[in-house]
Amino acid sequence: PGNGLCQLFQTLSCTSVFFFFHTGLIGVLSVCATLLQLCAGCPSECVCNSLEANCSGRSLVSVPALTFLPEGTHTLLLAINGLSSLPVSAFANLSTLETLDLSNNYLDNLPSRLFHELSNLSDLSLRNNSLTVLDRELFRGLTHLRRLDLSLNGLAAVPLGLLDELQGLTWLSLAGNRLHALERATFEPLTNLQHLELGMNPWECDCNLRDFKHWMEWLIYRGGNVDAVECTLPKDLRGRDIRGVPVEMFNYCLQLEDENGGGAGSTKGGSPPCFRGTATPWSEGAVVRTEAELPDCVKQRYRPVSVRRAIGTVVIAGVVCGIVCIMMVAAAAYGCIYASLMAKYQRELKKRQPLMGDAEAEADAEEKQISSVA
């Protein structure tokens, strides 16, 4: 029932109830009592029925009182409002909730225990807000979550541990954020993930994205779906989908790990040992680490070599190999020609030897005649 109907039943006078009772319409009164029970907890800003509370598009700047929503409410819609913050108890006593839509608001910070009582939540949308940081405890307890939409926010990092309890997640969107790299260990708990959206992010296709690329390939191999992950840096790979970049182009990362102490700073799942040259990802992420916990390469503001150097090495090696091959072919051709000429010369020499023998015999005969005359 809508709010108007609820108000109608709530304004029934005692005289009307007495009339209905004495006319034998007790059944009607019982139906009215049920309807009043459903309407009692529905906020005036929302429209409720037995399964859904729709508070979307009401220009709300704060969350209405939701404590006494109709029992059994499965869906709560708070989309397209002006919400910028939420109290930690906003969704208390709503354990039956299965779908929560907070999209198209102005939320920029969420309390760490905001969703802890929503143990049956299966679909959560935070699409198109102003989120830049997520607390690693935010999704704790959401073991039944199947869909999570974090697209069109300002996220620059996904903190390690944020998704650890979402083993049942099958659909995840991180599209349209400011992500430049992701850690493989952050996503390894998502053993049931089937659909991942990562488009419209400024990806930097360097060593920091290498291990996550391997994880994406594993996800695709087991039947999952990942949209395009287009590189913005380095220039040589700008516009290319990292899924199509040969893994050999990241072999130089192994050498860099050796140079940084055998990957001592790596994380679970073979993640890159270092972040980029600045400590920005650490400060923007929700994971707070002390200086002693940071890898040495981060303290030293280590900066990995561009993939461009790997391409240059391949090109130079190809040119050198080509030159060597040409020289070997030329040497072989010269040897063949020389051997052919020598063989021809030997044949000609053998042909001339009998002729040279006859001339010597005639010369000997003439010398004998001269000596006899003398």
UniProtKB/TrEMBL annotation:
The keyword Zinc does not apply. Residues 201-254 form the LRRCT domain. The chain crosses the membrane at residues 310-343. It comes from Sinocyclocheilus anshuiensis. Keywords: Cell membrane, Disulfide bond, Ion channel, Ion transport, Leucine-rich repeat, Membrane, Repeat, Signal, Transmembrane, Transmembrane helix, Transport. It comes from the Eukaryota. The keyword ATP-binding does not apply. SUPFAM superfamilies: L domain-like. It is found in: Cell membrane; Membrane. GO terms for cellular component: plasma membrane. This is Leucine-rich repeat and transmembrane domain-containing protein 2-like. Pfam families: LRR_1, LRR_8. InterPro entries: Cys-rich_flank_reg_C, Leu-rich_rpt, Leu-rich_rpt_typical-subtyp, LRR_dom_sf. GO terms for biological process: axonogenesis; positive regulation of synapse assembly; potassium ion transmembrane transport. It is a single-pass membrane protein; Single-pass type I membrane protein. The lineage of its organism: Eukaryota, Metazoa, Chordata, Craniata, Vertebrata. Belongs to the SLITRK family.
